[in-house]
Every structure is written in structure tokens, then in C-alpha cells.
From TrEMBL, chain A:
Domain of life: Bacteria
Compartments, record wording: Cell inner membrane; Cell membrane
Organism: Diaphorobacter limosus
InterPro entries: AA_ABC_transptr_permease_3TM (IPR010065), ArtM/GltK/GlnP/TcyL/YhdX-like (IPR043429), MetI-like (IPR000515), MetI-like_sf (IPR035906)
Keywords from the UniProt entry: Amino-acid transport, Cell membrane, Membrane, Transmembrane, Transmembrane helix, Transport
Matching NCBIfam families: HEQRo_perm_3TM
Domain ABC transmembrane type-1 per the UniProt entry, residue ranges: 56-246
Membrane topology according to the record: Multi-pass membrane protein
Family statement drawn from the similarity comment of this UniProt entry: Belongs to the binding-protein-dependent transport system permease family. HisMQ subfamily.
PROSITE patterns per UniProt: ABC_TM1
Transmembrane segments: 20-41, 61-80, 92-115, 127-146
Record function comment: Part of the binding-protein-dependent transport system for glutamine; probably responsible for the translocation of the substrate across the membrane.
Entry protein name: Amino acid ABC transporter permease
Length: 260, 245
């Protein structure tokens, strides 16, 4: 969407940079102005505008932190899953199997309530517990996306890199990973957008994010239509902005000009 | 005088039940151009890949300049940077420009600064006639052009020997010549080359030595004039007949 704004003669990286900057500025603008914008709305939105804005900020923050953790974790798990060491493969497979086979809500509740019982002294505050659970969850899904990417890089690429005398680290970082990441990017984006929405489940352990705010206001004011519509539209705005950023990243990696 | 640069002693390799190399022993001299021919599956590519350990051999020994080819990573990486390899499928890095493909190894292994690496790469690209395409990506090039870039990439580490694994087999007929021309030029410059190919014309003209592989063994090894004039046996005669000697 944003990508189409730029003049035809701009290069790929110029367009990509412009989109990235525009989307990030837009996101900052939306978040900082959301409170003021909503304050012009009729009751019960107007008087609670600041709460909505704070909730949206918490949602985005929660998503960014657990998304970053999930990317690192997913890369690690994908590497472990394709490792030559059998025990590493088993550990990664177990992690992916356990996370994908259980509901996210259970995982969030588990980290918040059960983990302190299992590990005495580990008392995570609600936000941190949500980050851990969401990060672990999206990490498992990312692992499979990245593994698919790693497997899709032709064997000849690794062989050519090794034949040049490059060490394992350079073969991976310079040749395999960039190509694998490009292939994994669309499913990673889906995972990230899903994470943004799934972060709403953190409301179960009392994190005051967007959904929690909406739910509190609708039960206090008995106006579910207005409040929940506001919540839904705010999510839509956030996901739209996030996909603009990721499209820009995808466009940058697409040196073959396949993306339209 | 020329000396034995690569020495293979009783090299064996099997894939499951199938023994692809059945005790191959030979030497490759510095400055020598060796062309290896033979039916597919006869083990010629496997020997080439064993030399830079893309396919580790099971027993026997291979030495490069007196140093054993083994799994020791330090030695292996040093050996590989001195042994250039060109593949049938080019294997250019698809996410990098032509220039970056050529400069990657010098920048990473020799830590050559980017500007110096670029200058050196442009000279190599000029040598293979690809200097006007330096900023293109591999997908924008024809097969012949990609293979010429792949040769420049292999030359970037200033190797002492170049291995060619069927470099023209994946090319359209009209592009074969441009790649062979580059290889001919290399040979003329004194490069030590081991070339697995089906191009009999190239073997006749450029090779110092033609080697015929049959079922995992070197069945015949002779200078090209002798090799083609009186084939050592019926199998070789039939093979030359089939691929158009």
C-alpha cells in the first residue's frame, strides 16, 4: 500500500527505506495521537481515551518484545531442529511439539501461576510472564517457518560457499541465512500479526492491554458495542501498520523482483 | 620443472552398496590441464569433489601440495581457498550482486577492504568479459554469463588449481563456447586445471592429458593426441563415438 506511493525512478532500497520510515512515523503518530483523537468521540469512548491509548501502547510493546524474543528463539530452535547433533534435534522437536500442541491461554496461565510453584523464588510480574509465554509460543511457530526456509536453500549454495574456503559461520551468516530468511519472511509476518492479536490473551493474567481496557470499560459502562468496536478498530490500525513495515522489509529482500 | 601438486593414493568412496571410487591413484602436476571423461556415474565428479572434500573419501589419501586433505577445519579451509571450484549448476549466490559474489570470499577470508576487493573483482570480471554486468543479480544473467561469473568468483581467492565439474553441461549449446573460451584463456595463462567434461573438442585442443574413468577406476590416461588417435579399448572407442569425438 505505502510502497505504491513512491516515484517510479526510485531504487528498491530507497522505496523500502521510505516505506519503513513512513510506516514507523505513522505508527508513532497514531499511538501518540490516539488518546487525543479518541477524546473527541462520544461517551463512553471520549472520557476513557487515555486508557485506550495506554492499552494500545501496552499491546504494541508486548508484541514487539515477545516478537523479538520469538524471532531469536525461533532461529535457535530451527537451527537445533536441523542440527547434526541428535539430542539438539530432540530438544527442539519436543519444544515445538509441546508448544504447538497446547493452547496459548494455558501456556500464559502456566507461566504466571504454575512456574512460581515449580521454580520457587521465580515470581514473574504479569507483563514479564506474558512476554515469556508469548515469546515461547511464537518462537515455536517461527522455528518451523525458518526451518522451511533453511531447507529450501539449495545444497549447491552451501557447497559453493564451502568450496571457496569460507568457515561455518560465514557460510551460514552470509549465504544460507539471508536466503532462508527471505523464504521464511511471509510466514514470519503471519506469525507476527497473529502474535499482535494473540497478545490479547494476556488479559487473563491481568496485563492491562487493549482488550483488557475495552473489557473493563464495557462492563463498567454497559456499552459493549461502542467499546468493543473501538478495540477492534484499534487492532486493525495496528495490524495494518505492522504489515506496512513487514512489506517494506520483504520488498528489500526481494532482489529477484518477484513480489508485486 | 613441474611437480606433483595433487596426489591421490588408492582413494575409495562408496555410497551405500555402490562403490564409486575403487582405489584411484594418480597425480596432477602444477601447470597441467587434465581433462577427465567417462560415462555418468563412473566416479569422475566424485574424485573432483573428494579433492576439496565436498565428498569425503572413505579410505586412501589425497594430498594438496604435500598436505593431507582431512576434516581439520583450519587446514581444509586454507586448502579450499587455494583450490577453486566451478559447478555444473553455477551455484552463484542468488541474493548477492555479481560483484558481491566475487568479493565475498576475499573480504571474509583475507579481510580485504571492500574498495580493494571491488577493484580486484572488476579486473577478474573483465577477464571473463562480465565487467558490464557487475551490479546485476544472477537471475538477470544467461547461463553462460552466470558460469563466467562463477569462474571469476573462484579466481578471486587466487587459487593454485581450478576444478571444473561439468561446467558446460547445464548450458544451452550457443553458450558453451563463451565458457570454454574463458577456460582456454585460463589454461593458456598456465593455470593448473582438472576439468570433468564431455567437450571432446576442448579436450583435444587444451588438455595436456586425458583421463578416462570407467566404473570407479582410471581406465586410461594419455596425452590427447594418443588418447583420441588410438583408443586403448572398445569401451573408450564407443564412448568417444557416442559423445562425438
Amino acid at each position: 500500500m505505502l510502497l505504491a506511493l513512491w516515484p517510479d525512478h526510485w531504487s528498491r532500497s530507497q522505496r523500502s527505506n521510505a516505506t519503513l520510515v513512513a510506516a514507523l512515523v505513522l505508527m508513532a503518530l497514531v499511538l501518540s495521537l490516539l488518546g487525543q483523537l479518541l477524546s473527541f468521540f462520544p461517551e463512553p469512548i471520549g472520557s476513557n481515551a487515555a486508557l485506550f491509548a495506554d492499552g494500545a501502547l501496552t499491546t504494541l510493546y508486548l508484541t514487539l518484545v515477545s516478537g523479538a524474543a520469538g524471532l531469536v528463539l525461533g532461529t535457535g530452535a530451527a537451527l537445533a531442529r536441523t542440527s547434526r547433533l541428535a539430542w539438539l534435534r530432540y530438544v527442539a522437536s519436543f519444544y515445538i511439539w509441546a508448544i504447538r500442541g497446547t493452547p496459548l491461554l494455558v501456556q500464559i496461565l502456566f507461566v504466571y501461576f504454575a512456574l512460581p510453584v515449580l521454580v520457587p523464588g521465580l515470581n514473574l510480574p504479569d507483563f514479564a510472564a506474558a512476554v515469556v509465554a508469548l515469546g515461547l509460543n511464537v518462537g515455536a511457530y517461527n522455528a518451523e517457518a525458518i526451518r522451511a526456509g533453511l531447507l529450501a536453500v539449495p545444497r549447491g549454495q552451501t557447497e559453493a560457499a564451502r568450496a571457496l574456503g569460507l568457515g561455518h559461520g560465514h557460510v551460514f551468516l552470509d549465504v544460507v541465512f539471508p536466503q532462508a530468511f527471505k523464504i521464511a519472511l511471509p510466514p514470519l509476518v503471519s506469525n507476527f500479526v497473529a502474535l499482535l492479536k494473540d497478545s490479547s490473551l494476556a488479559y487473563a493474567i491481568g496485563v492491562v492491554e487493549l482488550t483488557n481496557v475495552g473489557n473493563r470499560i464495557q462492563s463498567a459502562t454497559f456499552q459493549p458495542v461502542a467499546t468493543l468496536t473501538t478495540v477492534a478498530i484499534t487492532y486493525l490500525i495496528l495490524t495494518t501498520l505492522v504489515t506496512q513495515v513487514t512489506h517494506a522489509v520483504e520488498y528489500r529482500f526481494d532482489v529477484e523482483g518477484r513480489a508485486k | 620443472m613441474s611437480k606433483a601438486y595433487i596426489v591421490c593414493r588408492d582413494v575409495r568412496k562408496r555410497f551405500g552398496e555402490h562403490e564409486v571410487l575403487k582405489g584411484v591413484s594418480t597425480e596432477f602436476q602444477t601447470g597441467q590441464v587434465t581433462v577427465i571423461i567417462g560415462a555418468s556415474g563412473s566416479g569422475k565428479s566424485t574424485l573432483l569433489r573428494a579433492i576439496n572434500r565436498l565428498e569425503p573419501h572413505d579410505s586412501g589419501s589425497i594430498t594438496i601440495d604435500g598436505v593431507e586433505v582431512s576434516d581439520d577445519q583450519r587446514t581444509l579451509q586454507k586448502q579450499r581457498s587455494e583450490v577453486g571450484m566451478v559447478f555444473q549448476q553455477f551455484n552463484l549466490f542468488g541474493h548477492m550482486s555479481v560483484l558481491d559474489n566475487v568479493t565475498l570470499a576475499p573480504r571474509r577470508i583475507r579481510r580485504t577492504p571492500r574498495t580493494a576487493a571491488n577493484e580486484q573483482a572488476m579486473l577478474l570480471l573483465k577477464r571473463v568479459g562480465m565487467q558490464d554486468h557487475a551490479h546485476k543479480y544472477p537471475w538477470q544473467l544467461s547461463g553462460g554469463q552466470q558460469q563466467r561469473v562463477a569462474i571469476a568468483r573462484a579466481l578471486a581467492m587466487q587459487p593454485k588449481v581450478m576444478l571444473f565439474d561439468e561446467p558446460t553441461s547445464a548450458l544451452d549449446p550457443e553458450m558453451v563456447q563463451e565458457v570454454l573460451d574463458v577456460m582456454r584463456e585460463l589454461a593458456r595463462g598456465g593455470m593448473t586445471m582438472i576439468v570433468v567434461t564431455h567437450e571432446m573438442g576442448f579436450a583435444r585442443e587444451v588438455a595436456d592429458r586425458v583421463m578416462f574413468f570407467d566404473q570407479g577406476c582410471i581406465a586410461h590416461d594419455a596425452p590427447p593426441a594418443e588418447f583420441f588417435a588410438n583408443p586403448a579399448n572398445e569401451r573408450i572407442r564407443a564412448f568417444i563415438g557416442r559423445v562425438g569425438g
